[in-house]
Write a structure and sequence with these properties.
By secondary structure, the chain is of the alpha+beta class. It is built from 8 helices and 9 strands. It is 28% helix and 20% strand. It has a 5-stranded antiparallel β-sheet with strand order 2-3-8-5-6, with no helix packed on it. Strands 1-9-4-7 form a 4-stranded antiparallel β-sheet. The chain crosses the membrane at residues 230-251. It is a multi-pass membrane protein. Belongs to the CDC50/LEM3 family.
Length: 267
């Protein structure tokens, strides 16, 4: 874990290099050390609770699996974000390129889908003639998710506002246990050498309505995953508690055995 390198672009939604009207950011960063491939890109959200009961229940797993679900069931399962109008989707169909009917059931529907994180990142290497770095956005979720949990209903292609097989979408749909969390966004399959880089951000995702912030992280991984100081301390605390309980249990057993021997001797 000590070999893992991380760089954090903290609270970029407050960065002065972001144009709030155009929703574009161009931010220059400097890496003080080399990041060996693969380099993983994460976004981090603060003060946003995905564990809210209403938020978690507002979805249809059968719809996400590509199964037929009646409109009445979808209205019940996805409430209060049911129709395209509820989700604020006014763009064209993702697959068919026609205008969305605002009163139709949204595909996908639900609050989690409504607040899907849709910022986009591009990275340019200033040491290499400002060349754009390729970012892979596949193979970042569990294969079982793609095989079993997320499918497209081909009979309803004209209703989808987004591709539910998109791996960024699948990652977002997994509720986090904490109000501050990070999720993987992509992977860079080349080394990032020490030096300066420009990051271009499509700053679409609104943090103002929940008074939170969003950050961008670059991280390397080892066989145990990314850097996670919380888990290290958690393991230490749990280990200490287990040792303490073992000592208490040992003392209790010793006292019980001693009393049993004393009683047996008296007899």
């Amino acid at each position: 874990n000590s070999q893992i390198k991380e760089y954090t672009l903290q609270n970029y939604d407050q960065n002065t290099n972001c144009d709030k009207i155009l929703k574009k950011c161009q931010i220059r960063i400097k890496l003080n050390q080399k990041f060996n491939q693969p380099v993983y890109i994460f976004y981090e959200i603060s003060n946003f609770s995905q564990q809210n009961r209403v938020f978690m229940k507002s979805r249809s797993d059968l719809q996400l699996q590509g199964e037929y679900v009646s409109d009445s069931k979808l209205r019940k399962q996805c409430s209060p974000a049911i129709t395209n109008k509820d989700l604020g989707k006014t763009e064209q169909y993702f697959f068919e390129g026609q205008n969305l009917n605002q009163e139709d059931i949204a595909y996908p529907c639900g609050l989690i889908a409504k607040y899907f994180f849709n910022d986009n990142y591009q990275i340019y290497d200033l040491q290499n003639k400002n060349k754009q770095i390729s970012i892979q956005k596949t193979d970042i979720v569990w294969p079982s998710d793609l095989e079993h949990k997320y499918k497209i209903n081909k009979k309803e292609l004209d209703k989808y506002w987004y591709d539910t097989l998109d791996e960024n979408f699948i990652e977002w749909m997994k509720p986090s246990s904490f109000s501050s969390f990070r999720k993987i966004w992509g992977k860079i399959n080349q080394d990032l050498n020490q030096g300066e880089y420009d990051i271009l951000i499509d700053d679409f995702w609104n943090t103002q309505f929940f008074k939170g912030h969003k950050s961008l992280l670059l991280s390397t991984k080892d066989i145990f995953g990314g850097k996670n100081i919380f888990l290290q301390y958690a393991f230490i605390v749990v280990g200490f508690i287990q040792i303490l309980l073992s000592l208490v249990l040992f003392v209790k057993i010793m006292r019980t055995d001693k009393n049993f021997i004393q009683i047996s001797g008296d007899k």
